[in-house]
């Protein structure tokens, strides 16, 4: 493959011009890399967690246990596929496919480098791009949850159905917060195209304040740190990873939506989809908040760092770091309760996101020369005071309800303490002369 350094950022006009065979090569490479990435990711996760827990991990099959994931994959592919008699066969077979296919499609709009020369054809290191590419990623994430719901429904088991219902409620809660965390990026980048969002992070620009032009950071993970932190939490909930792996909670649901899938090829496809989804949300975090394929400081000081094929290396290193964060969370955090999961999404992440979007929109409006800045500040202040008033009102009502409930519980406890039989449970009197027909006798003290 002949390589030519072309230091140019791709734009929407650069897509749709590749020959068909170039597009096929790109799609095949992405598919193969993701498949191999799953094998390496399973090994890397087991190895890193074992080191965190002061043990070796896989170290028998191949050098450093690298062939352990290959052996496990072959075992699941060749194992007898057992199917329960009560399942819906069509849905049972389709569910793993619905899980896996959208995950692969979402990776098609992830930019991994600038314009390069591939077999003499100048092309971007990205399969395709759209004016609404980020919305495509959100749509694919929404479709993949149908695979979990169908897997639980088609298995016809109480535990699997509960797992599917948990997944649907969890995705609805956390996708709203995830979509809101992208709004700040859209406001600053002025586009929903993934390649143009990366280009917008090449230079942070300046912010006018008091006649001075204050330089702004280029990466949105610094400039929009609340959006970045909220996205980090939501991507754990979106991929059903610890501490938000409620759809497959072993403690209460056996195996959740995948309980009836034996350790066979269909189970391998479900596991494959989970890891590819982790790669997708990691790549989205890199693209939207971490400068995409651009080199970090101080490597970016080198003139050729963001040209040619070097950006592939920076993108890969960032992927490894974000994936290591997933592993760190799994090794250190416990699973939360379901009510805590829903409360975090609806009562904390979404309100904070809405307030942050208001602040970001105000800052962007202040940067526009044709806008009356005093009017913008007055409207923002009115909305802010209104939000604080509503929050204080609801918080006061909630505190009053808690106090009333605590007083009620205390009164019930005192009533039960005075009259043990008031709780509805029969309590035998302490002075019974007989017990099961045996006369009660006093035992002299000091005897055995």
From TrEMBL:
Membrane recorded as keyword: yes
Locations listed in the record: Cell membrane; Membrane
EC annotation from Swiss-Prot or TrEMBL: 7.1.1.-
Bilayer-spanning residue ranges: 20-44, 90-110, 130-153, 174-198, 218-237, 267-289, 309-329, 341-363, 375-394
InterPro entries to which the protein is assigned, alphabetical: NADH_UbQ_OxRdtase_su1/FPO, NADH_UbQ_OxRdtase_su1_CS
GO molecular function: NADH dehydrogenase activity; oxidoreductase activity, acting on NAD(P)H, quinone or similar compound as acceptor; quinone binding
Domain of life: Bacteria
Catalytic activity: a quinone + NADH + 5 H(+)(in) = a quinol + NAD(+) + 4 H(+)(out)
Transmembrane helix found in the keyword field: yes
Its membrane topology: Multi-pass membrane protein
Keywords carried by this UniProt record: Cell membrane, Membrane, NAD, Oxidoreductase, Quinone, Translocase, Transmembrane, Transmembrane helix, Ubiquinone
Entry-linked Pfam families: NADHdh
Annotated region (Disordered), positions in chain: 420-448
Compositionally biased spans, kind Basic and acidic residues: 433-448
Sequence similarity: Belongs to the complex I subunit 1 family.
NCBIfam families linked to this entry: PRK06076.1-4 (NF004743)
Oligomer status and interactors: NDH-1 is composed of 14 different subunits. Subunits NuoA, H, J, K, L, M, N constitute the membrane sector of the complex.
Function: NDH-1 shuttles electrons from NADH, via FMN and iron-sulfur (Fe-S) centers, to quinones in the respiratory chain. The immediate electron acceptor for the enzyme in this species is believed to be ubiquinone. Couples the redox reaction to proton translocation (for every two electrons transferred, four hydrogen ions are translocated across the cytoplasmic membrane), and thus conserves the redox energy in a proton gradient. This subunit may bind ubiquinone.
UniProt name for this protein: NADH-quinone oxidoreductase subunit H
Organism: Streptosporangium roseum (strain ATCC 12428 / DSM 43021 / JCM 3005 / KCTC 9067 / NCIMB 10171 / NRRL 2505 / NI 9100)
Lineage: Bacteria, Bacillati, Actinomycetota, Actinomycetes, Streptosporangiales
Name of the gene: nuoH
């Amino acid at each position: 493959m002949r390589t030519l350094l072309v230091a140019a950022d791709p734009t929407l006009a650069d897509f749709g011009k590749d020959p068909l065979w170039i597009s096929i090569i790109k799609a095949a490479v992405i598919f193969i890399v993701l498949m191999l990435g799953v094998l390496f990711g399973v090994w890397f996760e087991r190895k890193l967690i074992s080191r965190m827990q002061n043990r070796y991990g896989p170290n028998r099959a191949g050098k450093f246990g690298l062939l352990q994931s290959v052996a496990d994959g072959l075992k699941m592919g060749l194992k007898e596929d057992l199917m329960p008699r009560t399942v819906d066969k069509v849905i049972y077979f389709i569910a793993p496919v619905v899980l896996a296919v959208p995950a692969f499609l979402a990776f098609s709009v992830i930019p991994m480098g600038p314009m390069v020369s591939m077999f003499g054809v100048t092309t971007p290191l990205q399969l395709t791009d759209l004016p609404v590419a980020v919305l495509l990623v959100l749509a694919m994430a929404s479709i993949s949850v149908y695979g979990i719901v169908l897997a639980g429904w088609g298995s016809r088991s109480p535990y699997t159905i509960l797992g599917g219902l948990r997944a649907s409620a969890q995705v609805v809660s956390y996708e709203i917060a995830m979509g809101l965390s992208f709004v700040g990026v859209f406001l600053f980048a002025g586009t929903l195209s993934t390649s143009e969002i990366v280009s917008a992070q090449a230079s942070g620009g300046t912010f006018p304040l008091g006649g001075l032009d204050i330089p702004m950071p280029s990466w949105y993970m610094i400039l929009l740190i609340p959006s970045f932190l909220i996205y980090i939490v939501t991507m754990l909930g979106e991929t059903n990873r610890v501490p938000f792996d409620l759809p497959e909670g072993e403690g209460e649901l056996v195996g959740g939506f995948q309980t009836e899938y034996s350790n066979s090829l269909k189970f391998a496809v479900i596991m494959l989809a989970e890891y590819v989804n982790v790669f997708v949300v990691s790549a989205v975090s890199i693209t939207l908040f971490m400068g995409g394929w651009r080199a970090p400081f101080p490597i970016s000081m080198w003139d050729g760092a963001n040209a040619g094929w070097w950006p592939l290396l920076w993108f890969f290193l960032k992927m490894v770091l974000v994936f290591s964060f997933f592993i760190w969370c799994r090794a250190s955090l416990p699973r939360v309760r379901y009510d805590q999961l829903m409360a975090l999404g609806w009562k904390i992440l979404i309100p904070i996101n809405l307030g942050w979007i208001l602040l970001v929109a105000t800052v962007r409006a202040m940067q526009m020369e044709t806008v009356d800045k005093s009017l913008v500040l007055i409207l923002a202040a009115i909305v802010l005071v209104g939000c604080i008033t509503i929050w204080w009102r609801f918080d006061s009502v909630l505190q009053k309800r808690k106090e009333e409930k605590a007083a009620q519980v205390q009164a019930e406890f005192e009533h039960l303490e005075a009259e043990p039989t008031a709780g509805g449970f029969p309590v035998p009197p302490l002075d019974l002369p007989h017990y099961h027909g045996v006369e009660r006798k006093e035992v002299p003290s000091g005897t055995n």
